[in-house]
Design a protein that fits this description.
mainly alpha
Length: 135
């Protein structure tokens, strides 16, 4: 149900608008030119505040980009989770544990049961072939 519930467009639009308004008004709030110092110090303050605004803006835009990427983490993009790879790694770990604890007979029984549920080309014929790869 979580994957099928979309974000409301108005919420995304309002959050993005507020972020951009805040980022564009941030330099105006940080600039303090009404000081009794000489002109030399004003330049250093302006430069330091511009650098600070740049990094704050870069951070907020980066956070927004990450939130867009994490909107659907179970797809087929390069940044998405590899669910099939994680499941295959878990199956390999289970086979290795059963092989170490109960031996090759029970590993082969589990493998035969899994072959009946899945494609036969995905599994080696015996546990010996796989244990050469694992160990």
């Amino acid at each position: 149900k979580f994957m099928t519930t979309p974000f409301p467009f108005s919420l995304v639009q309002m959050a993005r608008t507020i972020m951009f308004l805040w980022l564009f008004s941030l330099p105006l709030a940080l600039i303090d030119l009404d000081s009794s110092d000489d002109g030399g110090h004003i330049f250093h303050r302006v430069v330091s505040r511009c650098v600070m605004v740049f990094f704050i803006t870069y951070g907020f835009i980066g956070l927004e980009s990450v939130s867009i990427q994490l909107d659907n983490p179970f797809g087929y993009d390069e940044n998405d989770f590899d669910n099939l790879g994680m499941a295959y790694c878990t199956f390999e770990d289970i086979y290795a544990i059963i092989y170490r604890l109960d031996g090759i007979e029970w590993t082969d029984k589990l493998r035969l049961r899994m072959k009946s549920d899945y494609d036969e080309k995905d599994f080696p014929e015996t546990a010996d072939e796989e244990t050469k790869l694992i160990f």
